[in-house]
Design a protein that fits this description.
Distance between the termini: 112 Å
Order of helices and strands: HHHHHEEHH
Number of domains: 2
Number of helices: 7
Shape: elongated
Strand content: under 5%
Radius of gyration: 39 Å
Structural class: mainly alpha
Helix content: 55-70%
Amino acid sequence: MSKQDRIQKGIQKGIDKEGVIGSETIGEKIRKRTPWIFGRMLRKPKIIFPKIRRKSISIPTPSKTFGVMIVYILLFILQTGVVYLIYRKPPAVGADSSGDPIFIYPNLHESFIVEGIVASILIFVSSTGFILIYQASKHTFNRKLAIRILIIGIGMIIGTFFALQYMLSVKLGTAEQ
């Protein structure tokens, strides 16, 4: 008896099929239980879909450190007031009535280029202080290192706060030069 005959005989007896990939289809299971609905005319074919692999382009991605550096550079550029510098075109430095150079413009709504750059550097130093405070929390098991980093971070924040307050008081004319 050939293999084909055994398969045909197995189908007629209801025995599991040999040489067929997979089990019975749902249609075959229903047809076994309810032959009066579907009869022998309707059969759901087994379709094996091929696995298609998509070709993907792998682009090298930069590291997280590079991304953070780009963000910091963009923040620094925005903090310096590039839009103000392009739109208003202020002078780099100025001079008072006696001819001495001044670096902080005496009006609150105007500024020199150097003043914007110095303020941006101070804000950047303050941001670095906050990052150092965060880094200090990572060194909880090395207490001495954590305290040193914490003190440096707090010192940077307090120092830049007072420097920016001094710059603001000079602009308002309340500070003695």
